[in-house]
Design goal:
Two copies of one chain form a homodimer. The first copy, chain A, is an alpha+beta fold and about 250 residues long. Chain A has two domains: about 140 residues, Sandwich (Jelly Rolls), CATH 2.60.120; about 80 residues, Arc Repressor Mutant, subunit A. The first copy, chain A, has seven helices and eleven strands. Chain A has a four-stranded antiparallel β-sheet. In chain A, strands 2-7-4-5 form a four-stranded antiparallel β-sheet, with helices on one face. In chain A, strand 4 and strand 5 form a beta hairpin. Chain A is globular. At the A-B interface, strand 5 and helix 3 of A face strand 5 and helix 3 of B. The first copy, chain A, binds a DNA duplex (30 and 30 nucleotides) through helix 6. Chains A, B: It comes from Roseinatronobacter thiooxidans. Chains A, B: This is CRP/FNR family transcriptional regulator.
Chain lengths: ~250, ~250
DNA sequence: CGTCATATTGACTGGTGTCAACCAGTGTGG
DNA sequence: CCACACTGGTTGACACCAGTCAATATGACG
């Protein structure tokens, strides 16, 4: 688990071509504001498994996830770990006005981040309200997601947790790529069993058992190690314990 | 559980005399901005146990908690409940830009809120950046608290959960009133066993058992039903599972 | 082929949930 | 005034879900 080696990937440096342009912290920026951001941004790439920063370490930048998935985790003294954030493309990492990272930030998959040095970003935030407004909106969304997650952690059974996680990832995948080939959903699980267990507050053995159970019952089909097919999404939704109706696609 | 009856309590209507003036969403406002807020604010009082709004119901205001404690809870179809927010004086309820409440909002104790009709508040937010800035700051704090809470829900034992909750309330109590009479901490538990169980993702029986266990071991002393004395705070802290050092008093 | 990381499965344990009885305090109405 | 109900809390007996420990698969990669 090294924290070196971030080769600059071939990637368009133009904000206008950016895949997350309309959803990230810069979403509301006008052309001139974008120019200012463009001057202080730089890209960093990480390989799957690499740590971006450790909890407590100095973090002198904030960043948007461009491609890939990052996780935020907390660790207890005796090693118990709980994931507390799952950052997908366009999500924001780091906190303006704070020196160090409160969490371990890890690349769950290969990852590209659009980074801004913290100081200039903070100054820019004061001058351009559009950034602060968008950040507030995104933080409120994060808070809602965290509260949904708390319900899962506090009250759901292992089976419901697994079904919920698969539905969450399926939804997010569907919202990015519109691969609605009939009612059947197909996507890659971007998390290892261990990462899933850290997300769900379970052991990795329980995760494995419950995934197997859902497979044996035909609620999901696995192809290879990571690929998942959901033959009937509504059927799986019923296993999450959530209200049947409340399912809005992101 | 009615939702009527909010008698206006005798309470200073002057923002300058407000006990939460320096910590609430209005904390950064200048005198002139405060005047604008003052024009659209109104107080509402609730008795312990009353519901402020139900999840899904229209909520046409946002509000600061002035005195007392409010809770945010989610309910699953079959009745399982999880608390997802604990609002203390100066904390903010409601979300600008959203019509309905996402959670049940309940008065855990007698409660006074300083309310703003949503529309005027949103318009004010656009014109006075200080409100949005402060709200962002508070939301980021809420998010951090929610993530700490997720660690508790996902990874802590019942005993650690109870110890953690008592420490959290003791800290907050100490931060409001500086009653540092020696090393001994004394305060009222503002939550019923049921509310504690909803906070912690436990049953109320388990809460009761673990509180009794801590009492029998002398880690806490109970006087009457609700009053709690902590003879040695550090000793109790060791039962939370948290890092021994990281304990900053709010 | 061996090694390593990841995943699966089994046997067993134990912590927490469930169901139920009981207690204490408070308010109510005959 | 006392019987009664009602709410909030405590304690016990027992069941069961998920954790623990361990063995075995699977696949990637040298």
């Amino acid at each position: 688990m090294t924290r070196v080696s971030q080769k600059i990937q071939p990637f368009s440096q133009e904000c206008n071509d950016c895949p997350i342009r309309h959803r990230a912290v810069c979403a509301r920026c006008e052309a001139d504001e974008l120019t200012l951001l463009e001057q202080i941004k730089y890209y960093r790439s990480f390989e799957a498994g690499q740590t971006v920063v450790w909890a407590g370490d100095k973090m002198d930048f904030v960043a948007s996830v461009v491609t890939g998935i990052a996780t935020l985790s907390q660790t207890m003294e005796d090693g118990r770990r709980q994931m507390v954030g799952l950052l997908l493309p366009s999500d924001f990492a780091g906190r303006p006005g704070r020196e160090t990272s409160a969490y371990d930030v890890t690349a769950a998959t290969d990852l590209v981040m659009c980074c801004f040095r913290k100081k200039p970003f903070e100054e820019l935030m004061i001058r351009t309200p559009h950034i602060g407004q968008r950040l507030l909106e995104m933080t409120l969304d994060e808070l809602d997601a965290a509260r949904e997650w708390m319900l899962l952690l506090g009250r759901k059974t292992a089976r419901e947790k697994i079904a919920s996680l698969i539905c969450i990832i399926a939804r997010r995948d569907a919202s990015l790529q519109l691969n609605a080939s009939d009612g059947e959903l197909r996507f890659d699980l971007p998390l290892t069993r261990e990462a899933m267990s850290e997300y769900l507050g379970l052991t990795l053995e329980t995760v494995s058992r419950q995934v197997s159970a859902l497979r044996k019952e035909g609620l999901i089909v696995t192809e290879g190690k990571r690929q998942i097919v959901i033959p009937d999404f509504d059927l799986l939704l019923e296993e999450t314990g959530d209200d049947s109706d409340g399912g809005f696609l992101i």
